[in-house]
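Appendix B. One record, verbatim.
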Amino acid sequence: MITSKQRAFLRGKANDIDAIFQIGKDGVNENMIAQLNDVLENRELIKIKVLETAMLTAREASEIVCEATGAEPVQCIGSKFVIYRPNSEKAIIILPKA
């Protein structure tokens, strides 16, 4: 569980990154979860966009993705959301102390 101070730090980091995944009308599937797990291991912090054709809101998609990948939700604004999961071997992003 990340603290509000750490969440604010991650939100600041997320401002500079682009959405690298899109969730469309097919929603979240097993293939996407596998790809998200791989990317989370390498980047730790990713932004995902939910298209208008999707049957999910960004918040619903965020909850599904976080539950499936073991990530923490950081931010959900409009059609985009940001998730964070620390690398299991070596941390890429050093979070501030709680």
